[in-house]
């Protein structure tokens, strides 16, 4: 059984790391080990029974101070050589890097032992000179590139790299909540979030950050209330990674206060019970500028929740007209209209929910994802 080293450059957990853990657990023909800095990711991996190898990686910080910059680069190089030694001594046969940054680092150091490297790209690559440099390095050093949507893979489908670029959508475990449980969670979540039983619930789920545009959801729900709807908004997620995300979270709280929506906009913070929240939600919003994929959408569709999302990034590859409504980024009036349509028509919500559930089972199961990843491994071994 081939040994695959999943390399993640950070210990934090967000959608990319959740996808990594699920894929590593469900590989049908390979043994996974996760290489990452000590922290939440490795803790979750251990709980899931996945072997881990802790790796110390210094954060490379750009600085105008040449001494600090040199120290940072030296620490990064030291971490890279440590990584190269680990993958060789552990008997790893393929390095599966879980991000662009991890892919670049792995390619720079895994070549020492002639180990194949896969870049699993989970963000939309940058444009301009930086994007050109990344594509050049991928063409020179990556044995394969996996992208989670067409929007992500498209920049890599050029020249010699095209044959090594693969589209593999993210997947979820097919654990759907039954109708009786759904009603139980509906009542339980409303109690937790101080939401009346009779109110409609809209949720927006994900990291609180400007490009997710949670302010659009607040503005839309405010307009829905002005239009006479009894509706509450659950903002599920936390601000992390960057100071600007914390500032944005503060801005959202102030926006809700300014609109007189403090009681109707519920900031839940981080939650690990997303399936239960989705099952208690009437309509899921996704308002992002450019979502690379949209994992929360398939999580909500699995629980038969109707979707309103932006027509951007990888979202149109998930949401078809029979399971949700797409609207242009930033067009609040169209967001309000779509939400109004679904909140006013329970039968339509139910139909879209059923269709979404079927679509996830057919196209977005983690077993399907893991099998397609294994196909990429097979191609590398055959080459």
Strand content: 15-25%
Number of folding domains? Answer: 2
The CATH homologous superfamily of the largest domain? Glycogen Phosphorylase B
Shape summary: globular
Number of strands: 13
Tell me what the CATH architecture of the largest domain is: 3-Layer(aba) Sandwich
Mean pLDDT: 92
Structural class estimated from helices and strands? alpha/beta
Evaluate the radius of gyration: 22 Å
Write the H/E string, N to C: EHEHEHEHEHEHEHEHEHEHEHEEHHH
Outline the biggest β-sheet: 7 strands, parallel
Low-confidence regions: none
- Please give the count of helices: 14
| Helix amount | 40-55%
List keywords for this structure.
16% strand; alpha/beta; Rossmann fold; 46% helix; 2 domains; six-stranded parallel β-sheet; 13 strands; seven-stranded parallel β-sheet; 383 residues
3D architecture notes:
The structure is a single chain. The protein has 383 residues and is of the alpha/beta class. 46% of the residues lie in helices and 16% in strands. The protein has a seven-stranded parallel β-sheet, sandwiched between helices. A six-stranded parallel β-sheet has the order 10-9-8-11-12-13, with helices on both faces. Strand 1, helix 1 and strand 2 form a beta-alpha-beta unit. Helix 4 (100-110) packs across helix 5 (128-141) and helix 8 packs across helix 12. The longest helix has 24 residues, at 66-89.
């Amino acid at each position: 059984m081939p040994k695959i080293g999943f390399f993640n450059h950070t210990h934090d957990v967000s959608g990319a790391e959740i996808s990594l853990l699920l894929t590593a657990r469900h590989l049908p023909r390979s043994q996974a080990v996760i290489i990452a800095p000590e922290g939440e990711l490795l803790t979750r991996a251990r709980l899931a029974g996945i072997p881990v190898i802790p790796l110390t990686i210094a954060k490379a910080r750009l600085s105008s101070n040449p001494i600090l910059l040199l120290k940072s680069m030296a620490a990064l190089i030291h971490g890279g050589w440590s990584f190269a030694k680990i993958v060789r001594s552990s008997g790893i046969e393929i390095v599966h890097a879980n991000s662009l940054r991890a892919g670049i680092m792995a390619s720079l150091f895994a070549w020492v032992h002639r180990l194949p490297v896969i870049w699993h790209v989970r963000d939309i690559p940058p444009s301009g000179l930086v994007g050109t440099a990344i594509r050049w390095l991928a063409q020179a050093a990556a044995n394969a590139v996996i992208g989670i949507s067409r929007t992500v893979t498209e920049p890599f489908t050029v020249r010699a790299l095209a044959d090594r670029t693969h589209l593999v959508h993210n997947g979820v475990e097919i654990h759907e909540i039954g109708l009786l449980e759904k009603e139980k969670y509906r009542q339980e979540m409303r109690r937790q979030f101080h939401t009346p039983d009779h109110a409609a619930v809209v949720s927006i789920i994900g990291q609180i950050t400007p490009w997710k545009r949670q302010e659009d959801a607040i503005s839309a729900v405010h307009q829905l209330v002005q239009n006479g709807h009894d509706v509450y908004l659950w903002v599920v997620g936390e601000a992390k990674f960057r100071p600007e995300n914390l500032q944005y979270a503060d801005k959202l709280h102030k926006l809700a206060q300014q609109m007189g929506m403090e009681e109707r906009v519920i900031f839940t913070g981080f939650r690990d019970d997303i399936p239960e929240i989705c099952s208690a939600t009437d309509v899921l919003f996704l308002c992002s500028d450019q979502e690379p994929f949209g994992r929360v959408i398939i999580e909500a569709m699995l629980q038969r929740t109707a979707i309103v999302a932006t027509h951007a990034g990888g979202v149109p590859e998930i949401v078809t007209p029979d399971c949700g409504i797409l609207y242009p980024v930033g067009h609040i009036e169209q967001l309000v209209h779509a939400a109004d349509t679904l909140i006013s028509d329970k039968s339509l919500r139910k139909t879209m929910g059923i269709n979404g559930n079927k679509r996830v089972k057919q196209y977005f199961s983690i077993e399907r994802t893991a099998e397609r990843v294994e196909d990429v491994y097979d191609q590398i071994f055959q080459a």
